[in-house]
Design a protein that fits this description.
This protein is of the alpha/beta class and 383 residues long. It has twelve helices and 17 strands.
Length: 383
């Protein structure tokens, strides 16, 4: 049986305080590319059309905020009030499935601060959970595990080849996980592990997982997560729009954008395959109309897409001498107006008065950095 033939529900506990994150705001609400971490995880599962429902468990003080953020996908996302421990919160999520139709075949449990996972890996876990009752992802241990006594003196060193690190997601047959939490006692709910094995005698099938399944635990992890999201999520297209940009300019842009590790192509039309557009202009005539026309195409295309990982970005480049100050003013004002009127997109202008490598570096930096406070600004590069 394939995952598409199963009724699959995802449970995401998100009511923790994230003490190791060292911040007043729980880490699941820390921003990653302008959206909270939890939202990236929710939307990653939401994109899987074979997932019927997603249950998010949150604390009282954040339930309104989370409910408002997932309103765009409320057709299959449900927000549930959590409790003071992880297992108690998951129990609340599992109990909420009593009202879900169709009755789930498999329940996937995942950490909401693990936004990176491969669809095929999740499918493999789901299928194995249906066959074996439970399944989970593992990774090899990378450090030696040692044991010390009460005086912090080394007493034993374990052979790491005999052990594995347990990762997420994990999946269970609905009846198994439901029974496990019904039988769990207070100690289980405070400190328990492997409740399906303890209460249902159901050992999990262990699935080797990729190295992308890591968890955002500390503040420094945000920088690594942002880099991964940008490298995998930013797709840049370059178009020569008004006039005919020289091959040297187009190659310069391609070279520097690709050096940032970003996907980059020259294309002739706007599409959802891209979220970053570099429009190159070389003619001054009717510049406002052309800027607005190309920009509207982007807005119309992306307005229909609620799955976007990164905010769309449009960079209008004028490659040539703009000795006409009136045209330069018009260019700047149009970029500023677009940013004000269409704030769901980042808008930048770049005027390069000579074909130089600085143009490629500037545009590549804007594609990568995506600084919201720069939106609406026009940058002038002098020779």
């Amino acid at each position: 049986m394939s995952s598409a033939e199963l009724a699959v529900v995802v449970v995401l506990p998100a009511s923790g305080t994230g003490d190791r994150f060292s911040c007043q705001t729980p880490k699941q609400f820390a921003c990653l590319l302008d959206k909270p971490i939890f939202f990236h995880t929710v939307m990653a599962f939401y994109r899987f059309d074979w997932v019927q429902n997603i249950v998010i468990i949150v604390s009282t003080e954040h339930i309104d905020r989370v409910t408002a953020m997932v309103d765009c996908c409320k057709d299959k996302v449900k927000v549930v009030l959590g409790s003071n421990t992880r297992h108690r919160s998951i129990r609340e999520g599992v109990q909420a499935l009593m009202h879900v139709q169709p009755v789930p075949d498999v329940v996937v449990i995942h950490d909401v601060v693990r936004p990176f996972f491969d669809e095929e890996v999740v499918k493999t876990i789901v299928k194995n959970a249906f066959v074996h009752g439970a399944a989970g992802v593992t990774r090899p241990l990378v450090s030696t595990v040692i044991q010390g006594d009460e005086n912090n003196m080394l007493t034993a060193s374990l052979d790491r080849n005999l052990y594995r690190a347990s990762e997420m997601p994990q999946a269970f047959k609905y009846g198994v996980i439901k029974e496990a939490y019904e039988k769990a006692d207070e100690n289980d709910l405070d400190f328990g592990t492997e409740l399906a094995l303890k209460h249902c005698q159901t050992p999990a099938k262990l699935i080797p997982g990729p190295d992308c399944l890591w968890k955002i635990t500390y503040k420094k992890d945000l920088y690594a997560a942002e880099g991964i999201m940008k490298e995998t999520g930013i797709c840049v297209c370059i178009q020569s729009v008004t006039g005919s940009a020289s091959e040297a300019v187009l190659q310069c842009l391609e070279h520097h954008i690709s050096e940032k590790g970003l996907s980059c192509k020259r294309v002739s039309e706007v599409s959802l395959d891209f979220n970053t557009y570099v429009f190159v202009h070389t003619e001054k005539s009717d510049i406002t109309t052309m800027l607005e026309t190309m920009s509207q195409e982007v807005c119309d295309c992306h307005r229909r897409n609620k799955y976007e990982i990164v905010k769309p970005c449009v960079i209008h480049v004028f490659a040539g001498n703009l000795l006409d100050t009136e045209t330069e003013r018009e260019f700047r004002e149009t970029i500023a107006k677009l940013s004000k009127d269409q704030c769901s997109v980042l808008w930048y202008g770049v005027i390069c008065q000579s074909t130089c490598g600085r143009l490629g570096k500037m545009v590549a930096s804007l594609c990568w950095t995506r600084e919201d406070s720069f939106s609406g600004q026009t940058f002038v590069l002098h020779s």
